[in-house]
Amino acid sequence: MTVLILGLLVFLGLHSVRIFADDWRTAMRARLGENGWKGLYSVVSLAGFGLIIWGYSLARQQPVVVWSPPAFMAHIAAPLMMLAFILLVAAYVPGNGIKARLHHPMTLAVKVWALAHLLANGTLHDIILFGSFLVWSVLLFRATRKRDAAAGTVYPPGKWVATLATVVVGFGASVLFAHWLHLTLIGVKPF
């Protein structure tokens, strides 16, 4: 569990710099240059992510069951995951109405992903992993909305074709992941 927690501290700590230390981030970018900052950020992020994966796999070997979710929770988690995939895709499809309306769909995707997994899993390592990401995404979403308001950021209106494409691709990706890739990559068959 220690490796998992260390990975979460490194990964989420770095990804929380804009929430808690935006001035420090600005100073570091000025000192290291844009590419230097991005390089350091990438290396530390990958190290934290690697520790999360390793720590999670270690913790799964000796799970501590905190609660046993009822079977119907998987049926609640499934549509939430579909929504998470659509939100994730919305972060990348230009001109879609979801991003125009919600502004930060990737952060919302992480929030929905974490909530869905908390509902469907009851081991300590799942609660630590998904609970950490849920708390982080709530704080980040609030901070980004505040920053947008302070800067007067205006998002262009979305177009229905881009929005439809976002929903179709997100839905397709969620089906592909749930039925094939989740088992291959994570080792768990969600259904």
Automatic annotation (TrEMBL):
<dbReference type="Pfam" id="PF07298">
    <property type="entry name" value="NnrU"/>
</dbReference>
<feature type="transmembrane region" description="Helical">
    <location>
        <begin position="40"/>
        <end position="59"/>
    </location>
</feature>
<dbReference type="GO" id="GO:0016020">
    <property type="term" value="C:membrane"/>
</dbReference>
<keyword id="KW-0812">Transmembrane</keyword>
<feature type="transmembrane region" description="Helical">
    <location>
        <begin position="71"/>
        <end position="93"/>
    </location>
</feature>
<feature type="transmembrane region" description="Helical">
    <location>
        <begin position="160"/>
        <end position="181"/>
    </location>
</feature>
<feature type="domain" description="NnrU">
    <location>
        <begin position="3"/>
        <end position="190"/>
    </location>
</feature>
<keyword id="KW-1133">Transmembrane helix</keyword>
<protein>
    <submittedName>
        <fullName>Protein NrnU</fullName>
    </submittedName>
</protein>
<dbReference type="InterPro" id="IPR009915">
    <property type="entry name" value="NnrU_dom"/>
</dbReference>
<keyword id="KW-0472">Membrane</keyword>
<feature type="transmembrane region" description="Helical">
    <location>
        <begin position="113"/>
        <end position="139"/>
    </location>
</feature>
